[in-house]
Amino acid sequence: MASFYLQLPEHHGDKSNAYTSPFYQMDTRGQDENKVLTARGCHTSPRVKVNGWELTTEGGILKLHRAWKVKNFVKGLEFFQLVAAIAEEEGHHPDLHLVGWNNVKIDVWTHSVRGLTDNDFILAAKINHLNLEGILSKRANVQK
């Protein structure tokens, strides 16, 4: 499996709110009862891009969005199980949509700040590294 490292800022000067996972560092502010992730950690015009993901705005909220075509309905659910494992490990949960019988759509954003944070880009990159062999349709995958 190919690996790469995503360089993150110093978590706004507070390294005590970070932990490391196999490839990336996640910011855990907002996961503790006494710490709140505020809008100061929110990206209003992100410069970071994640391959295959596009920036969208829905209801004034900036999100990362990606879509795939899967072989069938059951393969879509298998895809969601793979994403769920990463989401649980990271404590950061995307919006998952299975539209029709073979269209998977994922939106990643941070609900607490109503926008994008470093964690969203990290989660999108991790989703990109999933082994989707046998799940995706042989037809070209869509980006909308």
UniProtKB/TrEMBL annotation:
Main enzyme class: lyase
Catalytic activity of the protein: (4aS,6R)-4a-hydroxy-L-erythro-5,6,7,8-tetrahydrobiopterin = (6R)-L-erythro-6,7-dihydrobiopterin + H2O
Name listed for the protein in its UniProt record: 4a-hydroxytetrahydrobiopterin dehydratase
Species the sequence originates in: Panicum virgatum
EC number: 4.2.1.96
Gene Ontology process terms (BP): tetrahydrobiopterin biosynthetic process
Pfam families to which the protein is assigned, alphabetical: Pterin_4a
Keyword Lyase: yes
Keyword Lyase: yes
CDD domains: PCD_DCoH_subfamily_a
Keywords for this protein: Lyase
Gene Ontology CC, one term: mitochondrion
Family affiliation: Belongs to the pterin-4-alpha-carbinolamine dehydratase family.
One MF annotation (Gene Ontology) recorded for this entry: 4-alpha-hydroxytetrahydrobiopterin dehydratase activity
SUPFAM superfamilies: PCD-like
InterPro entries: PCD_sf, Pterin_deHydtase
Residues in the signal sequence: none
